[in-house]
Amino acid sequence: MHICLSDGWGGLEMYPARIIPELQRQGWEAHGLALAGSRVAESLAAAGCEPLTVVSRGRALLQVGRVLAYLKRHGIDVLHCHKSSDLRLGALLVTLQPRLKLFYTDHMGVTRPKKDLYHRWAYGRVTRLFAISEATRRRNLKAFPLPAARIHRLYLGIDLAPYAPQLDRASRELLRRELDVAPDQVAIGLPGRLTDGKGHEVWLEGLARLRERAPGLAWHGVLIGGLTASEGSDEAYVAQLRKRVAALGLEGRVTFAGYRPDLPRLFEALDIVCVPSRNEAFGLTVVEAMAAGKAVVGADSGAIPELLEADCGRLAAPEEPQAWAEAMAELGQDAALRRRLGQAARCRAERHFAVAAHVRALTEEYAGA
Fold first, then answer.
1. What's 14's domain CATH number?
2. How far apart are CA 354 and CA 73, in angstroms?
3. Coil, helix or strand for 55?
4. What range does the domain containing 226 cover?
5. For a surface tag, which of 77, 155, 194, 305 has the fewest beta carbons within 10 Å of its beta carbon?
6. Shortest CA distance to 331 belongs to which of 223, 207, 186?
């Protein structure tokens, strides 16, 4: 049973529904526990796993008997939590039913020590803690009251198939026009939630400097991500970005594309994908862009350098707009280089970040291998 009692919507919340179809393909019976009416609950149902629901996190603790009865009825002996706050319920279930095995994925990257009495009790019930990168594993080892043997790195995985090119030339050009990209322009995209910490402002400053660094290069910037709170973005921050675009004289040079469910197709419309996040715990967008065969410029911080090797992309300091301008100029002016990096990126994604391999490693842990 995957437990995710979150009313938000981001990579953490998407994870259970992302892997459940592959769990089922590999012969596992998957269940979920989610908040009633949440997008997590909707995504689980859409993935073929109608979840058990509760109205709130507090109510879940009060209904622990109901949850235990559900686990017994379905013969469930593996629990997997995805938010640290959900470990209260997971640890309580294990305390009441010691046969259960409890797993926890630290999707966010812990930022402070968790070694007080409560955390020693909760994490003491965890069979295995998964760090999603080496960068987060190093922080986990310092922060959590667990021996190193119980903290394993497990890179996330994605279904690679949707990211293979599907559009013919005419369809691709139509999509580019929809994004305000002219036929002769290099499309430079930044996909992801529009919230502070994702590096949008340094990227915009980099685009402004790109005009000076490569005055002969025709380009257009595309920001891909929800524009409202209901789509996971910070509306005040979106307004701040619009003002910054105007202040930098980039109006007409940058499109706010909004939330797009067809992200794999949008990658086909882009020539360069930028991920300037300052401290990514993993960097799922980087892997998605690699799977799409795109040349990527990523921030030289957090876990991104683990994913993006020199032969399949470029790294730039997350606080240095000039470094972003230089990287975008290099790739923007060399189509052959973009193709070569993109092909190498796709091969690396196939070798290391396929969801099938991720789930096999995960279920080996579930089974106690």
1. 3.40.50.2000
2. 33
3. coil
4. 161-352
5. 77
6. 186
